[in-house]
Design brief:
The chain is α+β, with helices and mostly antiparallel strands and 81 residues long. It contains two helices and five strands, in the order E-E-E-E-H-E-H.
Length: 81
Amino acid sequence: MAVKIRLARFGKKKMPSYRVVVIDERRKREGRILEAVGNYDPKKKENVATVNKERVAYWLQRGAQPTQTVAKLLKRMERSA
């Protein structure tokens, strides 16, 4: 099973918010997830994600691949910390 760390969209129309989730790559964007590891709200001024770094590290060790967007978010979090 190929596992990805990606964003799942939630929220109202034109007011998106996202969850950072660990999911089988063959599932739909809002399909059944393995674990939710964080949140991302692009509408806020800070535009920062909140992520459980321990769980992300755990999944990365297990071979999960982050999408380009999630990889950018994680890099931005490292720089700001």
